[in-house]
Design goal:
The chain is α+β, with helices and mostly antiparallel strands. Helix content is 53%, strand content 18%. A 5-stranded antiparallel β-sheet has the order 2-1-5-4-3. Strand 11 (406-411) and strand 12 (418-424) form a beta hairpin. The protein is elongated.
Length: 428
């Protein structure tokens, strides 16, 4: 039996008991038949009216409440309950329902505004965005994604990743850059849940223009460096060659012409040698290959490298350690660090290495004047040495990063001098 029927029947039963009691009293009171039947009729009519009124007073608010809840479920927030107040239990219920409707209306407005903002951002962002559900069917795509695939949104939605040629890119170990449509794209992938269902998100950023700009800027830097070095070498060579040409064309040569000729030729040879060193160092920088990794003993490698340096004493501190690396490249890196330290040192150089959970840490310390201009230390062709090429430190850091490690150079904090720190992972 329905809730409202139970309440009404209970109330009618109570009214019936009262009416029956009243009728018994009337019929037992010695009243005339007319009076008794009149009173009985009035009691019956009053009971029926009371029951109907009670039913309407009970059912109408409940139906109102049901209509409001149905409207909320259908996201219609225009309806509100009347007689909502803190006076009475039912008034409190209506008040809470109205408050819930206000809250849901504001949340819906916020969601609509957020969705509008998201659509606006997706429409104007340059990155191509694709969202796939658990069955790898496309659920969301922005205009950049449409342009990338050359297919309108209406034909894309619902298609599988395999049909769109994006299935292989959903894997976590998929490449992070691809060539597609005449451009180069940076690929980022992540996962999210919508209504408890897992989804995959693919984001493609067109890096073609950025790469071209970087390539152009790199060529500009190379041309500037090459032009600067060539001018530094060719300008004095041209000047001296012109002077020597004028000297030998004189009808009467001065007494010291041989000395002038020899001095000029020495300068030309010196500048030619400097230019040769520069081009050799540049070629070495451009030919750095991928490392051929194998297990090697760090302590043996350090002892072999330091044995080549005889200008200053070198103190070694470290136990047996292994690393998975390219022996030739790591040896070249250590040669550069030890050579720089020996050239800067006053009395001695220290080389230390240790192994911990993060990998190998190797330091090369000197007791020289320290380093200045640390911001430019790893800039190609930047050097503070008269005969330096500015390639050694840059090449060393390239080797360290190719092995997944790092190389830093800073002034010592415990004493005068500099310290180079090499960190490499993958130690066994």
């Amino acid at each position: 039996m329905h809730y409202e029927k139970r309440i009404v029947l209970t109330a009618l039963l109570a009214v019936a008991l009262v009416a029956l009691t009243a009728l018994l009293l009337v019929f037992a009171g010695g009243f005339s038949a007319k009076v008794r039947w009149t009173v009985a009729f009035v009691i019956v009519i009053a009971s029926v009216v009371a029951g109907y009124t009670l039913y309407e007073q009970l059912v109408f608010p409940l139906r109102t409440l049901s209509n409001i809840i149905t409207a909320l479920r259908e996201e219609d927030y225009s309806l509100r309950a009347r007689y909502a107040s803190r006076e009475g239990a039912f008034g409190e219920v209506m008040l809470e329902v109205n408050s819930l409707a206000d809250l849901m209306e504001s949340r819906k407005l916020e969601a609509v505004e957020a969705a509008a903002l998201l659509r606006s951002v997706l429409a104007r962002i340059d990155a191509a965005i694709f969202a796939f559900d658990a069955e790898e069917r496309l659920q969301l795509v922005n205009p950049a994604g449409e342009r990338m695939l050359g297919i309108p949104r209406e034909r894309l939605l619902g298609e599988t990743a395999s049909k769109l040629g994006l299935h292989d890119l959903l894997d976590d170990d998929a490449p992070t850059t691809i060539d597609r449509g005449g451009g180069r794209w940076d690929v980022r992938r992540t996962s999210f849940r919508e209504r408890g269902v897992p989804h995959r998100l693919l984001v493609f950023a067109d890096i073609t223009r950025a790469l071209r700009e970087e390539e152009t800027e790199a060529w500009r830097r190379i041309v500037r460096v090459l032009g600067h070095e060539l001018n530094n070498s060719l300008a004095p060579i041209k000047s001296i060659a012109t002077s020597l040409e004028q000297l030998v064309q004189r009808e009467e040569l001065p007494e010291d012409w041989r000395a002038d000729l020899a001095s000029g030729m020495r300068v030309i040879g010196s500048r030619t040698e400097a230019l040769t060193r520069f081009t050799r160092a540049y070629a070495q920088l451009a030919r750095l290959p991928e490392p051929r990794r194998r297990d090697l003993r760090v302590d043996q490698l350090v002892r072999r490298v330091t044995a080549l340096e005889r200008r200053v004493p070198i103190a070694l501190d470290g136990a047996e350690a292994h690393v998975h690396a390219d022996e030739d490249q790591l040896e070249q890196l250590l040669i550069n660090l030890v050579k720089n330290a020996a050239e800067a040192a006053r009395e001695r150089v220290s080389v230390r290495w240790s192994v911990n959970g993060d990998g190998l840490t190797l330091t090369v310390e000197d007791d020289g004047p320290g380093v200045s201009g640390t911001a430019n230390l790893f800039v190609p062709f930047f050097t503070t040495k008269p005969t330096g090429t500015g390639v050694g430190l840059f090449l060393s850091r390239q080797i360290a990063e190719a092995h997944g490690g790092t190389l830093t150079l800073a002034n010592r904090t415990d004493a005068a001098g500099a310290v180079a720190t090499l960190r490499l992972p993958g130690v066994s």
